[in-house]
Design brief:
Layout lengths: L9 E4 L5 H10 L4 E6 L8 H7 L5 E3 L14 H11 L6 E5 L6 H5 L5 E7 L7 H5 L7 E7 L10 H9 L4 E6 L4 H5 L1 H4 L4 E4 L11 E2 H6 L10 E7 L7 H11 L4 E7 L3 H11 L1 E6 L6 H5 L8 E3 L8 E3 L1 H10 L7 E4 L3 H12 L4 E4 L7 H7 L3 E4 L14 H7 L5 E4 L7 H8 L3 E3 L1 H19 L5
Parallel strand pairs: 1-2, 1-8, 2-3, 3-4, 4-5, 5-6, 6-7, 8-9, 10-11, 10-12, 15-16, 15-17, 17-18, 18-19
Antiparallel strand pairs: 12-13, 13-14
Helix pairs in contact: 2-3, 10-18, 13-14, 13-18, 15-16
Length: about 450
């Protein structure tokens, strides 16, 4: 059993719409997670009673509106008074802003209440090293910034490692979707804890991950020897990649973790590769052409890997491998290819290599129902981005209808279930190769390369 007043690795913010749900969640948390009681989220409740209901095991916080909370900015005296009321319940931990003097009532309670000193800085500010040089009184510290670029996460590695070497319990991470890696990699970089969203409630801040996700990624068990892989693109936070690859890396006893990296710019992506120490990448739109070319490789590619930092990158197109396997089992004949991006280019190369005639259509290269009917396509390949959002329609609906009488099969590259195109293909009675099937085949090939050829022990 850990000491009663220890600070677990996961701190879970109780963001539920009512206290009963929040309390039920807190009671289900294990020893690796401490509930954060945000008094500003339950302003009408008695703070002492809330702490008592949690049996003292909580971190009490009352967050100002300027720091993502709900307490009115103009009522600082009332906010501090509300925090002091919670002391009567004797919480194990209390959050007090970094720059505040410790109120007398809190100071005298430090025989049984430990202080976490926190600071949320404005976008563009990075003063972590300066703040570590002049720490306030407290037993743990939290610094929170904003990620404007993916590579910004890498700036935390040095200060977090320094803090760990000096016995300072520090968490430092970046808010926003591009700051997600900093939340998951705290233990790798030397951070003592991280914040999580409840599995049955909303995130308290942009980029905050559910507790179940951090546990599945074994974030608390990571160590500095772990290497980093991930999927990069925009959008990417919906990706099945982490759920697919992390269990395989774990079963292979490989010291690698696989995360989503939100980035749609090749220059920014190249900057992040070394800033974060990335060893393996799955590449998705819009970077399948641009990122390999920025690294001096011929695209389109959807997979990059290297043995260690500073050595050359290797690339592959496992999309092509997966599509080629499926294509070999489909009825021969002409093909209607929809789209013009990296996936469409991969599809075209495979179709031409298989000797199939094709008619490619895109917004920049439109066609007519008459031309499609004259082609009489046997197959239709959907390689546009339509389907990434649930409200997306099927692409080129009038061309699909023109192909309906001759078509026998269809391929949907988007791996979300029941895209409008997939629904159309089923309704038309076509043999459908779903995006999920292609995803699993190409991702399995990626996992083999990451396990066999990226750094990290196994």
């Amino acid at each position: 059993m850990p000491p009663l007043n220890s600070l677990p690795f996961h701190i879970v913010t109780l963001t539920h719409p009512d206290w009963e749900q929040a309390l039920a969640c807190a009671r289900r948390l294990g020893e690796d997670a401490l509930p954060e009681l945000r008094l500003d989220l339950f302003p009408e409740a008695d703070p002492e009673a809330l702490v008592d209901a949690l049996k003292r095991r909580c971190l009490v916080t009352c967050r100002r509106a300027s720091e993502g909370g709900r307490w009115p900015e103009a009522d600082e005296a009332g906010r501090l008074a509300h925090l002091v009321k919670a002391l009567k319940g004797k919480p194990l931990w209390m959050d007090l802003e970094w720059d505040l003097a410790i109120p007398h009532e809190i100071q005298v309670a430090r025989t049984h209440v430990r202080l976490l000193r926190s600071i949320h800085v404005a976008p563009g500010v990075f003063d972590l090293e300066a703040r570590l040089a002049s720490l306030p009184e407290g037993e743990a510290f939290k610094w929170v910034g904003w990620a404007g670029r993916l590579g910004d996460n890498g700036r935390l590695r040095g200060p977090l490692g320094w803090a760990k070497d000096h016995g300072i319990r520090l968490a430092a991470f970046l808010m926003g979707p591009k700051g997600l890696p900093s939340r998951a990699l705290q233990a790798v970089w030397g951070g003592a804890f991280t914040y999580a969203a409840p599995d049955d409630g909303p995130a308290a801040a942009p980029g905050q991950l559910p507790l179940a996700t951090l546990r599945a990624w074994r974030a608390a068990r990571l160590h500095p020897g772990f290497g980093l892989c991930g999927v990069i693109g925009d959008p990417v936070l919906h990706s099945r990649g982490p759920a697919f690859h992390n269990p395989r890396l774990q079963r292979a006893l490989k010291d690698l973790i696989y995360l989503p990296f939100l980035c749609g710019d090749a220059e920014e992506a190249v900057e992040a590769l070394d800033a974060l120490g990335i060893l393996g990448l799955s590449i998705t739109a819009p970077l399948k052409l641009a990122l390999p070319e920025a690294l001096g490789l011929k695209g389109p590619l959807n997979t990059l890997w290297r043995r260690d930092l500073g050595v050359p990158w290797h690339g592959a197109n496992t999309d092509a491998e997966a599509f080629g396997q499926s294509l070999s089992k489909l009825e021969p004949g002409p093909v209607l290819l929809l789209g013009e991006g990296g996936v469409a280019r991969t599809s075209r190369l495979l179709l031409e290599g298989a000797g199939r005639s094709l008619h490619q259509v895109s917004r920049r290269s439109p066609s007519t129902p008459e031309a499609v009917a004259a082609l009489a396509p046997v197959g239709i390949v959907q390689a546009t981005s339509l389907g990434m959002s649930v409200e997306d329609p099927a692409p080129f609906k009038e061309l699909l209808e023109a192909a309906r009488t001759s078509a026998r099969w269809a391929v949907e590259w988007i791996y979300k279930e029941d895209t409008a195109f997939a629904l159309w293909a089923r309704e038309a009675g076509l043999q459908l190769i779903e995006g999920r099937t292609l995803f699993d085949a190409q991702a399995e090939a990626q996992s083999r390369r990451f396990i066999e050829d990226c750094g990290g022990a196994n």
